[in-house]
Amino acid sequence: MFSTIAIIASIVSVGFICYIVFIRSKKQSTDYFSSGAMTLPELIDVVKEEIAELIKDDSFVGGSEREFNAALSRKAKIISLLKESVDGKDSAKEIVIDLIYNYVVKYCPKESDLYSVIPFNQENLNVHYKFEILMYHFKRILVEENLKKPEDEQEKNPEKNAFKVWVKKYDLDRPKNIIEDKTKLSYVITSEEVEQSYAAENIELSYTDKAKIVSIIIFQRYKGFGCIDTIRALDINGLNIGVSGSILTYLRSQKFTATNSVWVNFGGRYIHLRFLDMGSKEEVRRVVQLLARYNSPGPLTEKRGYIVNNMYDESRILAVRPPFAEYWGAFIRKFGADHKDLKFLIYKPYITNWELPYWFIAFLMRGQVTTSFTGRQGCGKTTMMTSTIEFMDPRHNLRVIEMAFEMNLREHYPERNIMTLQETEFLDAHHAQDAQKKSDGAVSLFGEVATDPVAARMIQTGRVASLYTIFSHHGKTAEDTVYALSDSIVASTGMTDRHVAEKQVIDVLRMDVHLDYTADGKYYIERITEIVKLPEGLPYPEVDRDDLEYSVAAIQREYYSRKTDRKTFEAKDIIRYDLDTDTYYAVNPPSETLLQDMLNCMDKDKKNDFLEFLKKQFDYSQIQKVNSADNAIIQKKSVQGTVANNQSNYTGGMRKSRISRSDILG
Known about the structure:
Layout: H1 2-34, H2 40-56, H3 65-87, H4 90-107, H5 111-117, H6 127-147, H7 162-169, E1 176-178, H8 179-182, E2 184-186, E3 188-189, H9 191-201, H10 207-222, H11 229-232, E4 238-241, E5 262-266, E6 269-273, H12 281-291, E7 306-310, E8 316-320, E9 329-333, H13 342-346, H14 355-366, E10 371-374, H15 381-387, E11 398-402, H16 409-412, E12 418-422, H17 429-436, E13 443-446, H18 452-464, E14 468-473, H19 478-493, H20 498-508, E15 511-517, E16 523-533, H21 548-563, E17 569-578, E18 583-586, H22 592-600, H23 604-617, E19 623-627, E20 632-636, H24 639-650, H25 661-665
Parallel strand pairs: 3-6, 10-14, 10-15, 11-12, 11-13, 13-14
Antiparallel strand pairs: 1-2, 4-5, 4-9, 5-6, 7-8, 8-9, 15-16, 16-17, 17-18, 19-20
């Protein structure tokens, strides 16, 4: 009995002591923070405590039911906003920053208090802070200018252009001889350039402005994406992090380490933002994991190695980690909700005859031509595919398959019948293709044909399951695209005859639009190429009864030629782009077979428009541009002549063949 009482007394004593210690420590903490002399890490800690207390607060218990429900709703709203702000939702982020601002004002009521957090009054202010101030400054200017415009001319989010305005104003995206002992051109924005532009702007900040900037910095380190949080939300094409700098600990003498590795894709130029440094590998890891966490795709573990996901704003993110990658890294591609039509993508003031590829691509869609959009990464394949939808017949249902949602077609064309499917952890692209066949689709779109099974099934879909198919691929030439798709069919189906696979591809694929861009960010359509199927099913050479030996040899030669090196298709350029003169020019007209098929799919008024276009742009029967040793010359050849030439090359028969008896018999 006595021992039981002693145990209870001990527990009560320990509990009381813990309570006293807690109260004293809390009072000391409050007294310390109320002094105002705190650093940024200390202010971050107190903000975390305040928000944690706000979430845990149960003081509303015991009130009326109405008060209880209202308080509970406010609490749930705060929790939801904190979660959404981590996901990158701008509206939630702004509310959380305003919440943090209230605590900043509470604990730093005087301007001098803010200086102990961020030394705004010192010339050696951290360059990252100067960048944040510059973005805050340009955002404010853009919003004020936008409000001065008539209401119907105001932009929706003018502050998103802050980075663009800053870069253009100070010509920061020009190539510079900086890297590798100043011997190589590259795109870099240095700390010195940030310092110079900051000094040139001569920015005046009020107490409110400074407190707001402190709140932004706290959010970045507390709930945001670190030093890339601000720029990630602005109007850029994408971001890479963790892709440069030394990662070997015994080489720490290197000037640049992997933490100093933030690259922005701006107008087709990948610019190294040297002034941004995440500071530690732990911070890089935190940011990478946060970037990839939207919609709970699962953990980024050593076993998994990488995650492809979408962010809240529909940006695509590839996150990688060791040991799969040499370092923690993320690759963000932004596919903004702002729709860019085909004219915007092709027309530039310096380009001559931009109407030629513009209208030809439009008529390809109206003519229901299966088309591939090819080119290297980042050349604009997905964006151009999205822009071509406007020329498709809205009566046709669209079914889209993507690795990750990028095209957002329903946002651009909400009144059309569209359904997009994507790969998941448990469902591959071939499952999506199986489901797509039962979804009443008329036109199939494939965001990217990157694997053998997807390529094989795409060709199958193009043959039997849709009117026509649009897809993107990384083929360098039209021939490479055909051969790669053929190899994919062989690899994924077990087919042994590659020529049969090749014939399946050219039965489906009829046009290749190849995109590219220059090192200085000039995007263009390099060529538009028709895949012309060559004649097949031609008779073998006839038997000459007077010379059976020659007849047998000729037939054998023809047989093995067809089985080995006989071409089944011709890649014929229709339109090309001249980089020297920035001009689109016609090379050859489309084949008669293709033209007839396109016209059969068009309404009467569209047929007339197409015929007028052909008459204007292809006023010869055929044009072919040939590079001569002296200069470029234009040669004209009739379509009939080309067909006859093909017949002479590929038609069997002793009398038609240009192969002599001596060539065959030796």
